[in-house]
Specification:
Number of strands of chain B: 11
Radius of gyration of chain A: 23 Å
CATH topology of one domain in chain B: Four Helix Bundle (Hemerythrin (Met), subunit A)
Structural class of chain B: alpha+beta
Number of domains of chain A: 2
Number of helices of chain B: 19
Shape of chain B: globular
Helix content of chain A: 25-40%
Oligomer: heterodimer
CATH class of one domain in chain B: Mainly Alpha
CATH architecture of one domain in chain B: Up-down Bundle
CATH class of the largest domain in chain A: Mainly Beta
CATH superfamily of the largest domain in chain A: Nucleic acid-binding proteins
Distance between the termini of chain A: 69 Å
Strand content of chain A: 25-35%
Largest interface: A-B, 36 and 38 residues
Largest sheet of chain A: 5 strands, mixed, barrel
Chain lengths: ~160, ~650
């Protein structure tokens, strides 16, 4: 009898421990997901404010500006349709180039400027970061769609 | 001519692999020694021809034969010899060939060192490994042939990604693969046990040696990779929770669980089903790692191919291996039996709990790694799961495991008394709590996370020391003799556990007290970080074997010590204009100084990264200690003697 109770208690404790662990893990998972938005989505107001997310696209030619006495940087990320101003302070990755793909992670302020705390490029010149490629691809389809549905009234808020 | 020979050898290797598994399985089920020995000969032949294929490819790289497409796209004339050879595994096709070759190497070793195993069991083992070989060789021959010709031949090759032109490239992939592929032996052991419906402690002892060898390779391989990322990527990080890193870490976690669980199966004849399941998981995760890294699902420095058919093939193969193994497990596991019983508080139960924690930790890593891929594959949007998730979850999950590590050393097999354990460890606990509270203040600033991390590390060290002291007390001879007389397996365990502690100390202190500064510096300017003064003297141009480099010159002074220079570089490889950051590191036992150049700014100024990384070397030292512990355990004569006795008896 005693041994059985002991075993039962052990199993119950184990199950409770696993449930608590699972709840904590899933909660942490939920709150640390970083979503991705294309510049078009951000300009359309689909992206949240004061939450970390990622944007991707091309660094617009001639848009990179540096501050004179610090590492502050400004550049424009575009998916060829819409543009976002990005500010960043720090060292850019080796493969950051105007006209090339880039992914930035950070927050959007209420003026529509993206404050990046992380700028990612790729490891190899021959690849574009997948998020950047995705942004361009989606922008491409949107172009086609709007091209076909030009007669419809603009329903965007 | 040589590449054709290589291609032909590969086809022969495939034919021999088919024979290897066919004859072995047939021989095992019909209990025909002749068929089983044909299987073994075929396995050895497979090794010879896979090896020949690999050497042919190496020869093509050595002679820069650009009429081979794979050589032309991964090497060039200017590449230094060691990188020409490392370029063999610099791309998708060659790394698959390395995989297959490594597998045939392990198979060869198994045929040589398994004479004392029962014939049928041995045949099933070799047959299973043959099936895996068949899968990989088919994959190489039909979708990723490294011997494809390029007609007309290229004048020069495209060269190796500059990031990969590093000594790390020479060691990291082969060592890591030895680990990944080595788990195939444990996997084959599990399948053979399930097929035969019997799992004998003697076989578990045999498998333990093999799994430990694979685990040592994997540990060292991961440590190499981490060290490489630290100095090469110019970010000063040692682990990024990047999907490809996780791909190697998951099999490591499960493999670690497996070597502990095998110990219980061997000594106590318990955990049988669990051991078999872990062996299946460890190898499945190795395959999953290969899939993640090599299929182009992930874009990173490790991923080459974006050819969807390849990914699909590996995915189907993965499904067959895991699905097949788990189905077999579901059908046959009851016949293997549960094994010995044990009490709620016993060494077994501590080891089992730790095993569960390790598997949960691997699950946590898997969730964060695969979930974004699933969402993406289903077209439900792109998300990413960053380091915060892993750090937040991984530490609390592993905490009980670290705590139990200390207890498990003292718990007796079968049944232990919790109060007795507490009495024996009260001093160890007290010492670790007090020092964990004091040490962070001595380091400069008391931080709760640092104190907590150190508590874990000190607890492991203190409990290991108490255990060592106990051994010394019972032995009246001199200290040195006692150490020599300690069983190697025990000593290995202590060293490996101390390695975990050293690793935790490194991680805790570098996270807690690391200093990072990104600055704009003009020549002549100096900056003080912590107690070090860094003076930027300017830059100079230089050339390497196949690159141009811009060198920054920094003079570092610290108190009254002699000043020394650090020269970080910005390299640009002739082939393409891709720039590369080479950090300059002054490594030390208690801190690393890390300087890397960013980009040139106006007026001769440069963006500069200056990091101070306290105790960062301890991270890799800890990993090497874990591996050293594994090697010590292998040296334990207990394993070899019994194996030899058996061989002698059968002769």
């Amino acid at each position: 009898m005693k041994a059985r109770h002991k075993r039962l208690a052990f199993i119950v404790a184990g199950v409770i421990a696993i449930l608590i662990a699972a709840a904590l893990i899933l909660n942490a998972f939920q709150s640390n997901l970083v979503f991705f938005f294309t510049p078009t989505q951000v300009v359309n107001g689909e992206a949240p404010q004061n939450v970390n997310f990622r944007i991707g696209g091309l660094v617009e030619q001639g848009s990179l500006k540096r501050a004179g006495n610090s590492l502050a940087i400004e550049f424009v990320v575009t998916d060829t349709v819409k543009k976002i101003n990005v500010v960043y302070s720090g060292i850019l990755p080796d493969l950051f180039r105007e006209g090339k793909g880039v992914v930035a992670q950070g927050k959007l302020d209420n003026k529509g400027i993206f404050h990046a705390d992380n700028v990612l490029a790729k490891h190899d010149e021959n690849y574009m970061p997948p998020e950047a490629a995705e942004a361009l691809k989606r922008a491409g389809t949107i172009n086609q769609q709007t091209g076909k549905t030009l007669v419809l009234p603009d329903t965007k808020p | 001519m040589i590449p054709e020979l290589g291609h032909f050898s590969l086809i022969l290797a495939l034919a021999l692999a088919v024979m290897q598994s066919g004859f072995s399985f047939k021989g095992a089920s019909a209990n025909q020694p002749v068929l089983m020995s044909i299987g073994i000969s075929a396995a050895r032949g497979q090794f010879i021809f896979s090896g020949l294929a690999f050497l042919s490819l190496a020869y093509a790289f050595y002679t820069s034969d650009f009429s081979v497409l794979y050589v032309a796209s991964n090497s060039n004339v200017a590449l230094p010899l060691q990188y020409k050879l490392a370029a063999i595994w610099g791309g998708h096709e060659g790394s698959m060939l390395l995989w297959a070759m490594t597998l045939s190497l392990w198979t060869m070793a198994v045929t040589l060192f398994s004479r004392h195993l029962p014939e049928q069991f041995r045949a099933r083992l070799i047959g299973t490994m043959g099936l895996i070989s068949v899968g990989f060789l088919v994959f190489i021959l039909f979708s990723s042939n490294p011997f494809d010709r390029l007609i007309p031949a290229a004048m020069d090759g495209r060269s190796l990604n500059p990031l990969l032109q590093d000594p790390g490239m020479v060691f990291h992939p082969p060592v890591l693969y030895m680990g990944y592929v080595g788990f195939s032996v444990a996997f084959a052991f599990a399948i053979a046990a399930l097929l035969g419906g019997e799992l004998n402690p003697e076989w578990a002892r045999w498998t333990r040696t093999w799994t430990t060898v694979a685990w040592i390779f994997l540990t060292v391989g991961i440590a190499f990779g981490s060290r490489w990322a630290y100095y090469e990527l110019g970010w000063g990080g040692w682990w990024f929770w990047d999907a490809v890193e996780n791909a190697s870490f998951m099999p490591w976690l499960v493999g670690t669980a497996l070597i502990h669980s095998l110990a219980v199966t061997e000594k106590r004849d318990a955990f049988k089903m669990w051991t078999v399941l872990l062996a299946i998981f460890a190898f499945s995760l190795s395959l999953l790692g290969t899939f993640l890294v090599r299929s182009g699902v992930l874009t990173s420095v490790h991923a080459f191919a974006s050819d969807p058919t390849r990914g699909l093939f590996i995915l189907i193969f993965l499904g067959l291996v895991i699905g097949g193994a788990l189905t077999l497990f579901a059908i046959r596991a009851p016949s293997v039996g549960l094994g010995g019983k044990f009490g709620v508080v016993s060494r077994e139960s501590f080891l089992l709990s730790n095993n569960v924690v390790m598997v949960v930790a691997a699950g946590v890593v898997m969730l964060g790694t695969l979930y974004p891929l699933f969402l993406d594959a289903l077209g439900m949007g792109k998300i990413s799961v960053g380091p915060p998730y892993f750090n937040l979850v991984f530490v609390p999950v592993m905490t009980p495991a670290i705590f139990m590590m200390g207890l498990a050393i003292f718990a007796r097999w079968k049944n232990a008394e919790l109060p007795a354990l507490m009495v024996r460890l009260k001093w160890a606990f007290l010492v670790s709590v007090v020092s964990a509270l004091i040490v962070p203040s001595v380091m400069g600033e008391w931080k709760p996370m640092v104190s907590f991390g150190l508590l874990m590390a000190f607890w492991v060290i203190a409990s290991a020391c108490v255990s060592l002291l106990d051994r010394f007390k019972t032995n009246s001879t001199s200290l040195l003799n006692t150490i020599i007389d300690l069983p190697k397996a025990y000593l290995g365990m202590i060293v490996a556990h101390m390695g975990v502690a050293v690793f935790i100390i490194g991680v805790t202190l570098v996270n807690g007290y690391g200093k990072e500064q990104d600055l704009r510096m003009t020549p002549g300017q100096s900056v003080k970080v912590d107690s070090f003064t860094f003076e930027f003297q300017g830059i100079s141009q230089d050339t390497g074997p196949n690159y141009m480099t811009t060198k920054g010159h920094f003079i570092v002074t610290h108190g009254n010590g002699t000043p020394f220079t650090l020269e970080p570089e910005k390299r640009s490889y002739d082939q393409d204009s891709m720039p590369m950051t080479e950090a300059a590191i002054n490594p030390g036992l208690i801190r690393d100084l890390y300087v890397s150049l960013g980009e040139p700014l106006d007026q001769g100024a440069w963006a500069v990264r200056i990091y101070i990384k306290p105790f960062v070397q301890w991270i890799w030292a800890g990993c090497l200690m874990m591996a050293a512990g594994g090697i010590l355990a292998l040296l334990d004569p207990r394993y070899r003697r019994r194996n030899k006795d058996k061989q002698g008896a059968s002769l």
